[in-house]
Amino acid sequence: MKDIGERDILAPGDIEALVLDVFLRAGLTADSAAPVARSIRHAETAGLRRLGLGLVPHMVEHLRCGRVNGGATPHIVESGPAALTVDADGGFPCPAVAIGLETLCDRAQTHGIAVLSVRNAYPVGAGRLFLDHCAARGLVGFANIAGLVAHAAPNGSMVLEIEQRQLGLSQASPMMQSRVVPDRGTGRPIPFEGPLGPAFRLHHSFVAVRPSLWHHAPDPPVAVQNSGIAVSPVLLEKIINA
Question: Is a pLDDT exceeding 60 seen at residue 52?
Answer without folding.
Answer: yes
